[in-house]
Write a structure and sequence with these properties.
By secondary structure, the chain is an alpha/beta fold. It is about 45% helix and about 15% strand.
């Protein structure tokens, strides 16, 4: 029988367990009907109609009829409602645990307060850490990757590449810890990883029978970095990517005799002093690092000044990029000549002609006219080394006509970049066809290319050639690892960076299983 009292601030339900029904002993499981006494047990339940709910449950204490059982009496439990030593119903306890898994301590406490359940953040975290982790099943295909834990400290994440569920994580990325885990969980057949030497050694020590797969994305990413180094080395060739009509502009910029001197500004004087000081050291054979230590500069700054042929290159104003105002520049010049010098009026007129930009852009555009100078016309700037590298590594069929023309001009002018482009396309063909038969010859070509970054890449790939071959030919990769690491970073940010590794591990593993439980069936990786 259940009676409900809704007159107070909380909904109070009074209930009584069924008399005469046998109950199992919590120690040995023996059924008993021998009643010792009754007592009232108060349970908190999920809110009802926005009001907290309290259940006053009258339960029996019974004698255990098994003489061998250490328990003399025991309290009966109501299946689906009560748990030993718990002052919450199972429904409320599951709700608290789920909110703790999803939102952690402080966020979980706030969400529960919205649901009219008042718990502190420490209580929410304590309930979260009491949730047992699902049993760890040794995967057939294992994914291993590192992630930034905090500062310069990194962690290691293990993922089942077939079920896409995280297994565990720990602080550090040393080979011994990984090999110890693999020895404790035998049966791993395939391991997907990046090009890390640490993980390579750990897998070889802990699971020597496992096939190592070097991830395709990391292979391509490493090659892209080498291409960018080559483009930075041949920075002087990059202006040749500009159209023929502006071909004389970079030449003039690099020729002090034909280029007008920049204004005598503090920036120009500073650039000249640094240029002369850097070249005074690097022209004698000093390394960039040595020059940087002596001058108190960053090594990248020294490299930039040492790579410039004149000091004008480091202070030259970059050409203005095209903007949405460019189609209206002729109209602005015409209205200025007509005597209209108000930026606000000109902006209103442009709005009627379809211009959607801000007033500030119009004001800045007519600023040269106020000083008696012509309007700044948009000019195309030379590509940066990073942009040139992106052109080279991108598939030709994905280039627009403008980019394809600029890349063609650049490759025709620079034989080194042309050679680099051909080698990159050969590797891309291997990845597309999933055929590594030409990999040894390609590595030999890299070594003999005369380009130091590519020769270094060839040496690194040769040391890991078997895993590289597996990465090219098989369907296994580290994509699931990268997705889980993104999830780890999200959970870290939710917890504000204050979580310890055990709490982070608990949340990452449990939240993945929670999503899987409410999302439907399993997602299986291709074999």
């Amino acid at each position: 029988m259940v009676s409900v009292d809704v007159s107070g601030p909380a909904v109070v339900m009074q209930a009584r367990t069924r008399s005469g029904a046998p109950a199992g002993c919590t120690g040995c499981g023996t059924l008993s009907e021998w009643v010792h006494s009754r007592y009232v047990r108060r349970l908190a339940d999920a809110a009802l109609g926005g009001r907290p709910v309290r259940i006053d449950l009258s339960v029996r204490r019974l004698y255990c009829e098994n003489s061998a059982c250490p328990k003399v009496t025991f309290a009966e439990q109501v299946p689906g409602l009560t748990v030993r030593y718990q002052r919450r119903t199972q429904l409320l306890q599951q709700l608290v645990e789920a909110v703790g898994v999803v939102l952690a301590g402080r966020g979980g406490a706030r969400m529960l307060r919205v649901l009219n359940i008042r718990l502190s953040r420490c209580t929410v975290l304590a309930q979260l850490m009491r949730v047992p982790l699902p049993p760890l099943v040794t995967p057939r295909v294992l994914g291993v990757d590192d992630f930034a834990l905090y500062g310069d400290t990194y962690g290691t994440l293990l993922v089942d590449a077939e079920t896409r569920l995280p297994l565990t994580l720990w602080e550090g990325r040393d080979a011994e810890q990984l090999s110890r885990w693999l020895r404790g969980h035998p049966g791993v057949e395939i391991v997907c990883r990046d090009g890390s030497l640490t993980y390579r050694q750990g897998i070889a020590d802990g699971a020597p029978q496992a096939v190592q797969v070097s991830d395709r994305f990391h292979l391509w990413q490493g090659l892209s970095r080498r291409v960018q180094e080559i483009a930075a080395t041949h920075r002087g060739c990059l202006p040749e990517a500009l159209p023929a009509s502006g071909a004389t502009e970079p030449e003039l910029a690099n020729t002090p005799a034909t280029q007008p001197e920049p204004a005598d500004t503090p920036a120009a004087r500073h650039a000249r002093r640094l240029f002369e000081a850097v070249h005074a050291l690097t022209d004698t054979g000093r390394s960039y690092s040595s020059a940087a230590r002596e001058l108190g500069l960053d090594r990248r700054t020294v490299r930039k000044y040492a790579g410039a042929r004149t000091w004008h290159e480091v202070v030259r104003r970059p050409p203005r990029r095209p903007s949405t105002l460019d189609p209206y520049l002729d109209y602005l010049q015409q209205r200025w000549d007509d005597g209209e010098h108000s930026a606000k009026v000109l902006h209103q007129e442009l709005l009627t002609k379809g211009y959607l930009g801000h007033y500030q852009r119009v004001k800045m555009a007519i600023a040269p006219l106020r000083r008696g100078l012509p309007l700044d016309e948009p000019r195309e700037r030379p590509p940066s080394p990073r942009e040139a590298a992106r052109w080279i590594i991108t598939a030709p069929d994905r280039h627009g006509p403008h980019t394809a023309q600029r890349l063609q001009r650049l490759l025709e002018h620079c034989p080194e970049l042309h050679r680099t482009h051909d080698l990159v396309r050969q590797f891309a063909a291997m990845l597309d066809a999933r055929d590594a038969a030409s990999l040894p010859n390609w590595l030999d070509t890299l070594t003999a290319s005369g380009l130091a970054p590519l020769a270094g890449a060839a040496a690194a790939l040769r040391e890991d050639q078997h895993a590289v071959t597996q990465g090219i030919t098989t369907l296994y990769n580290s994509g699931v690892n990268e997705g889980r690491i993104t999830d780890v970073k999200l959970q870290k940010r939710i917890m504000g960076g204050r979580a310890s590794v055990p709490l982070l591990r608990h949340r990452v593993v449990l939240i993945a299983h929670l999503r899987r439980r409410f999302a439907g069936g399993l997602t299986v990786a291709p074999r």
